[in-house]
Every structure is written in structure tokens, then in C-alpha cells.
From TrEMBL:
One of its GO terms (molecular function) is ubiquitin-protein transferase activity. ANK repeats lie at residues 41-73. Keywords: ANK repeat, Repeat. It comes from Anisodus tanguticus. It comes from the Eukaryota. GO terms for biological process: protein K6-linked ubiquitination. The keyword Phosphoprotein does not apply. This is Uncharacterized protein. The keyword Repeat applies.
Length: 91
């Protein structure tokens, strides 16, 4: 029996990110109102994707009617979250 190749940390992260992106797409397809849902701090999925640096998910949500001007409980928008984390390199 051979030794199965171990997945690198990067490979695991890429698979997790792909699953997350797929879950977001499925949720938005099955429940279009979810794109602007809020958590207990009034953050939207767009806020959380921006904070996490998930540019493809931010792009997907923006193209699927996410409210890009939505403010969280602390009056912070998704752009502020991205800037705080320096998530997209251009902030």
C-alpha cells in the first residue's frame, strides 16, 4: 500500500473556499432575499465576505443585488470592513 499524498494547507483552504463560494451561490439562488439578510450586529453577507477578503464572493453578491451601501450596527459599510482588514490590496 502506498502512502496517500497529504494535502497542503493551501489545498485545504482552496477546497474550503470553493465550498463556501458554492454555498453562497446556492443560498442566493434558493433564497434571493438572503443576499441582504442581517446578523445580530446588522452585518450582511457582503460585510462578512469583505472582512474575510473573499473577493470572488464580494463580486458575486454585488452582482446579485447585495446592498453595497448597507451599514452595520456601527454604521460601517462593507468597504470599511475591507479597508480595516486591507483585504483587497487596493484599500
Amino acid at each position: 500500500m502506498g502512502n496517500p499524498k497529504k494535502q497542503s494547507s493551501t489545498e485545504r483552504k482552496e477546497k474550503l473556499y470553493a465550498a463556501t463560494r458554492s454555498a453562497v451561490q446556492t443560498l442566493c439562488t434558493t433564497n434571493p432575499l438572503a443576499v441582504n439578510s442581517r446578523d445580530k450586529h446588522s452585518r450582511t453577507p457582503l460585510h462578512l465576505a469583505a472582512w474575510s477578503g473573499h473577493a470572488q464572493i464580494v463580486d458575486y453578491l454585488s452582482k446579485n443585488k447585495a446592498d453595497v451601501g448597507a451599514a452595520a450596527m456601527d454604521d460601517m459599510g462593507a468597504i470599511h470592513f475591507a479597508a480595516q482588514k486591507r483585504s483587497f490590496g487596493s484599500c
